[in-house]
């Protein structure tokens, strides 16, 4: 699965994209797995209220299932316009 | 309906003119442009990051919803990414409807949704430092009226 990071999430983790082999069944499980990896992930995912998630380029929830997902993206609330 | 996401500047006058041209059944055209604003003074560059692929999909969905809801004759969204200076145009929307109320409302709807549902992030660079622009609660609350 491709995991993408944008804006300060990308800066905090230090990369825009990575391929992850995971058995996580929900976004929350994936986050728990990432947080356990290294301090920079822990820092990026410390406050979930400051984060949004998209599964296959559709805004989703943290309890959404990951079954069949190709691409998961984490980013802060959007500031377009 | 047209959605364009690009790094290069666009010609607002020309886009507005060509959007308005040749419509015989639409009595109202509304156009809106968003401009890079130097809020605190000292802005060097506004940097806009986006999520290629999702951005286009999100904007197309928002535009299609506006066309459907207000029976628009047409809708246009142009949004830039990359680095730009104060005074530069970041984006524009245009709507064409039979009557002005629909054209105005649909343009506001496009703006409200693309502010907090299209994956763009702004970062302000000054001579001293750089920081990501925080999303505003009012922008999220603005969606409730639709």
UniProtKB/TrEMBL annotation, chain A:
Top-level taxon of the source organism: Bacteria
InterPro entries xrefs: Beta-grasp_dom_sf, Mopterin_synth/thiamin_S_b, ThiS/MoaD-like
Xref: Pfam families: ThiS
Family matches, as Gene3D superfamilies: 3.10.20.30
Cited NCBIfam families: moaD (TIGR01682)
Protein name: Molybdopterin synthase sulfur carrier subunit
Gene name of the encoded protein: moaD
TrEMBL record, chain B:
Annotated keywords: Molybdenum cofactor biosynthesis, Transferase
Gene Ontology MF annotations: molybdopterin synthase activity
Domain of life: Bacteria
EC number: 2.8.1.12
Catalytic activity entry: 2 [molybdopterin-synthase sulfur-carrier protein]-C-terminal-Gly-aminoethanethioate + cyclic pyranopterin phosphate + H2O = molybdopterin + 2 [molybdopterin-synthase sulfur-carrier protein]-C-terminal Gly-Gly + 2 H(+)
Pathway per the UniProt entry: Cofactor biosynthesis; molybdopterin biosynthesis
Enzymatic class: transferase
GO biological process: Mo-molybdopterin cofactor biosynthetic process
Physiological role: Converts molybdopterin precursor Z into molybdopterin. This requires the incorporation of two sulfur atoms into precursor Z to generate a dithiolene group. The sulfur is provided by MoaD.
The protein's assembly and partners: Heterotetramer of 2 MoaD subunits and 2 MoaE subunits. Also stable as homodimer. The enzyme changes between these two forms during catalysis.
Assigned protein family: Belongs to the MoaE family.
Protein name: Molybdopterin synthase catalytic subunit
Gene: moaE
């Amino acid at each position: 699965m491709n995991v993408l990071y944008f804006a300060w999430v990308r800066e905090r983790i230090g990369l825009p994209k990575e391929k992850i082999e995971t058995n996580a069944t929900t976004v929350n499980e994936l986050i728990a797995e990432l947080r356990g990896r290294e301090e920079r992930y822990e820092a990026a995912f410390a406050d979930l209220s400051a984060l949004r998630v998209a599964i296959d380029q559709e805004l989703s929830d943290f309890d959404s299932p990951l079954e069949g997902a190709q691409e998961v993206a984490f980013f802060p609330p959007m500031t377009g316009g | 309906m047209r959605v364009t996401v690009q790094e290069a500047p666009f010609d607002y006058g020309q886009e507005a003119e060509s959007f308005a041209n040749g419509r015989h059944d639409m009595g109202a055209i509304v156009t809106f442009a968003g401009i890079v604003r130097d809020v605190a003074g000292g802005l060097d560059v506004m940097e806009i990051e986006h999520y290629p692929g999702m951005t286009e999909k999100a904007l197309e969905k928002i535009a299609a919803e506006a066309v459907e809801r207000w029976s628009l004759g047409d809708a246009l969204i142009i949004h830039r990414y990359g680095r730009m200076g104060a005074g530069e145009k970041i984006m524009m929307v245009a709507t064409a409807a039979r009557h002005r109320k629909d054209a105005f409302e649909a343009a506001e709807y496009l703006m409200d949704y693309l502010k907090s549902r299209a994956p763009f992030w702004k970062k302000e660079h000054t001579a001293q430092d750089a920081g990501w622009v925080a999303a505003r609660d009012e922008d999220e609350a603005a969606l409730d009226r639709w």
